[in-house]
Amino acid sequence: MDSDGTHDARGTHADRVPRPAGPPRVPPRPTQAPGGPPRPDGSAFLSWLRTPRPEAAPGVWRFGHRPRPEVEPEQIPARQLLSGAFIAFLVGYLIWSLLWNGYLGGWWLLPLYAMIPDSWAQPHSFGSVVVVYAYYVAVALGIMIGVGRLGRWGEVWRRYGPPAWRRAAPVDDRPPVPEEDPAQWNALRAAGAADAADRLGSDARAGLMRDVDHARITRAWQGVRSGRHSLATFTGAVLREGAAACLHPSGERDLPGRLAQHDLVTGQVRLGTTADDARNPYAYRGTGMALGPELLGTSLLAVGPAGSGKTGGVVWPLVESLCLHALAGRAAVVVVGAAGAGLGPVDAYDVVVRVGNPESVYDLDLYGGTTDPDEAAAVLAEALVGDLADPHPSGDSRRSTTVLAQLLGPYRAVHGRFPSVPELRQLLDGAPGPLGALRKALTDGGQESLLRELDARERQLGQPGDVGGVLADRVALLDRPAFAGFFDTSGQTRPFSLRALDHPVRVRIDLPQRGHADASRILSRLVLAQFAASVAVREDRSLFACLVLDDATGVVTPEAVRGIQRLRSANAGVVMTLRTLDDAPRPLRSPLLGAIGCRVALSGLTPWDGQDFAEVWGKEWIEARDVTDRQIIAETPAGKAVHMLRRVITGNAPTARAVTVRQVERERWSASELAHAVPPGHAVLSLTSVRGDHAPPLLVDLRNPGA
């Protein structure tokens, strides 16, 4: 034996036995990489897949959810319950003692004498002994049942007995019947793809399938049922690749890491736990709070000061969930925020646009990939001067759109492309050289209609009310040395266009915040305008599209509010955050809160911001109970003794209570409560699904999302 406790193989009997000559034996091929952990057996995945997910109210985490009653049951205080149960026991014992000792007479034995024959009443008769003691037990049980009901012994048993020790229901480890087992892929079997179902089931049992694989293959099967893909192609891919079939174009099957808790069967991501607070409906208290595409389709607005948890508690879990949905072929996500804002690693995205960073691989298409000058002018005008339009909901930027269209149309007709940022700035400034060259090219090409557009633009130059100078000043914010290599229209770079939202793509756009705040706001408005225009013309609207704006300061414009209202019908949504509602124009706050279905008010909100949320959440009718207690004064010694006993049992002085019940209307959450009663790490949120289901404002703890 060696020093480390192992046997030396050189001294074993097997080494001294001569081996027959022959070819050397080849060791078996290893099943995994050396030093790697053993493969799981798939039990964890199957347990996750088979966990029940009952239908629930909007926002409830459905994974393993157990519905609660709509109304909170009345619960007796512990001291009153236990003392009442003990007193009931004493009363029952007293009654039995009085009966047993004959203080109440023998009337309670008359039924016994009436039922038994006289022959059984002989002394030392076995039959009489059995019948008599059985009668005694029946009488004792009757007394016990009576006093037990009066003393609420059943409630004591449920609250403090073994039922209370087993809070969690026993887990049923038995597999479900094959007809109800999701791991059997019965939908595939019913359609004649039994071989593919067997392959997927074997991969699941072998631990080769993940939740993203299950969601991706389910999505591909939905494409087969809708006619977008053929059954033969789907079956061939599954038989060939197994759980890795129908991969995302990136080839990834999961994110580099996860921070939130996800359930890709229901599409939910858990944000936190609904607080056990009296202001929350009883059915929601203590349940997980989760969001999914059916809620994000109505868009979401989160308002809270810096450090309240907007990015870490709300934005990043949603972004992580949307990226998983994109890997499953269900969604396309575009995330816009400052560099280093905590929006996940680069490996979690397919396209990363770093505006102002020379090392950026991708560029941003200034015109959104469109070839229509009027559409490009409308989107660009919204980005440049959308915040200068009339802040009322009826305001627009049609004059700016007209000015840009008068230049973009002729330029594209001559050059076959839209102008770059420096060229657009010169045209808007009215520089005679570029305008003269453009006029000459149009004249030589016989473009009379476009010449009239250019003539109109030249006539407006220098006139009072001309917005060309304002547009030129805004374009100058993008015509900076830091952006010299961006917004190229010559085709020499790799511009990203939001027209790619027809595919399950994951995009992150990093804005240059330091020293370029105005340019960042222009780019945020540009991306929002392009997003609203792109999702409206998608051919396949079964793919959920979502735009995440980590900071929507300066983005809320009349056209943006109208665009958000139209996203629900296009199976798209926007997630926006604001430090305060003061970052949006005052006339647009109510329309913004009305257009967005999911509203989140985080802790630290100001009272005037809370007032806006209180108004949009409205009021509710509640039952107000006015209780008046009047102490009872005992006059006799016996009464005083009874009152003293009552005080010892209940802990309260004997009182006569008068209760007045009335219906009153009050705010669901007042401005003062939102400003001062929301604990740190919590938020009050209301939800609306695309089907119109509502969840009232709920107080949610964002600090324990995986509880």
Automatic annotation (TrEMBL):
The keyword Transmembrane applies. Residues 20-40 have a biased composition (Pro residues). The chain crosses the membrane at residues 85-110, 130-150. Signal peptide: none annotated. Residues 1-45 are annotated as: Disordered. Keywords: ATP-binding, Membrane, Nucleotide-binding, Transmembrane, Transmembrane helix. This is ATP-binding protein. It comes from Streptomyces liliiviolaceus.
